[in-house]
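Before the break, one more example. Copy the sequence into your notebook; we will annotate it together after we see the structure.
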Amino acid sequence: MSTEITYLSPRESGEYIVKNAKYLRVLPEGIKKLGEEILAAIQDKKLDVTNFSQHELHPQPGKDANEDPKYAEAADWIFVVDTLNFCFWTPDNYTKYKVNGYTGYFALCAAIKRAVDEGIDIISPKYYSQVDAKTLNHIFRSDDGETKIPLFQQRLDSLHEVGKVLLDKYEGRFENVIKAAKSSAVSLLQLVVQEFPCFRDQAEYAGKHVSILKRAQILVGDIWCGYKGEGLGFFNDIDKITMFADYRVPQVLVYFKSLEYSKELLEVLNKDTILQNGDPREVEIRGASIYIIEQVKDRVLELLHKDQHSSVNSVLIDQYLWDYRRKHQEKMADIPFHKVLSIYY
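Here is what the structure looks like once it is written out:
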C-alpha cells in the first residue's frame, strides 16, 4: 500500500531550508535594507498590479467577460507562456537566443505573439497538444536563424502534456482550471501542480520534501496581474503566493547583502559549474530566496498602514526585484549566479 508524499508549502520550505542550510546564510541587516528599498518603491508607486499588462508583449484581457469574447484568451496565453517559461540560456551564451530583439523570457513572449499575429493557433490546446517538432521549431525561430531555443524537446513534451490534460479534463480551456480553484490562489497552485506534472518543482532536502514551485506560482501571479486582480484574476489569498525562485533574483539578494554564500559555494558558482536540479546547493539558494522575500514582505507590512496592505505581496516584490536586476545588471556583473539546465526555471 503506497502512501502519498506530503510536501512543505513554498513558505514552509524556505524556512526549513534556511534553518538547515550549509552553503549560505541569511543576514538580517540586509533584509532590513531590502525592506527599505521595497517601502520606497511602494511609496513611489513602483509596485503595482498593472505593471504586467502594461508591457507590450503581454495580453490585454479587458474587464468584462460578457463584453469581450476574447476575455478568457488571456488566461490561455498566460498558461502557454508559463508552461514554456524556463531556461533561455546555454552554458556558452546567456543571451544569444533572441526574437525581435528580445532576450530571455521576453523572447518567448515575442515568439508567441508573432505566431498569433501569423494566424497560428498556438494558445489553443487542441493545436499545441499535437504540434510537431518542425512546426514548433518554426514558431520559436530566432533572429539570427541559427540559434535554437534551449531545451527544445522538453518544451515540446510540456506542451503535449498540458494540452492533453486541458482537453481531457477542462474542455480545452485554462479558464476552467481557474474557476475550479474558486478564487483561491493556493487552490489554483495546488491544482496546477496536481494536474500538470511539468510544474512539479519539488525536491528532497535534509530529510523533508520541499516545494519551490517557481513556474506554478508565477502562473498564478501572472493570472492575478494580467486581470489586475479582478474577474478571473481575483484571488482572496494572493498574499499566500511566495516569490518565484529562479537564478536571477538571488543576485539582487546578494547585492543587498541579505544573502551570503559560503566560500565553498562561491568557488563552485565562479567556476560556472552546472548544478543538477535538486542539488542541495541549488535548493538552498532558491529556498533562501523565498525565505528572504517573505521576511521582507512581513517587515514592510508591519511598517505600512492597513489600507496599503493590498499593494504588498511577494508577487509584486519579486517583479520589482527582477526588473531591478535588469536595470542594474552592470552593478551585479561580478555576482555569480547558479546554473541549472532545468524545466522548472
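The CA atoms of residues 226 and 334 lie 34 Å apart. DSSP finds 14 helices and eight strands in the chain. Try to locate both features in your own notes.
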